């Protein structure tokens, strides 16, 4: 799995890890919408971070876990993966 993590992938992870059905286009259209607005809590976000770390074989750290919205999360994760050469 190379390339940036997308809104589609994040929506699929939210479904798999937290049981939430979220339209990835809605997340993309609403840059200031928080994870809470999509009903994702911090535990659900931790699960998503853990899954991405497993998939990409690269630690993401506390910065990703602290992101409050999907846009910031994807930017942070993709920057970290790029820096790690993934």
TrEMBL record:
Alphabetical list of Pfam families matching this protein: PP-binding (PF00550)
Domain of life: Bacteria
Signal peptide: none
Carrier domain ranges (all copies): 4-85
Name of the protein in its database record: Minimal PKS acyl carrier protein
Species this chain originates from: Actinacidiphila rubida
């Amino acid at each position: 799995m190379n390339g940036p993590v997308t809104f589609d992938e994040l929506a699929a992870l939210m479904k798999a890890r937290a049981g939430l059905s979220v339209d990835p286009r809605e997340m993309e259209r609403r840059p200031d919408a928080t994870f809470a607005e999509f009903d994702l809590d911090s535990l659900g976000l931790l699960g998503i971070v853990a899954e991405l770390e497993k998939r990409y074989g690269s630690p993401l750290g506390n910065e990703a876990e602290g992101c409050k919205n999907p846009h910031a999360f994807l930017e942070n994760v993709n920057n970290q993966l790029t820096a790690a050469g993934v």
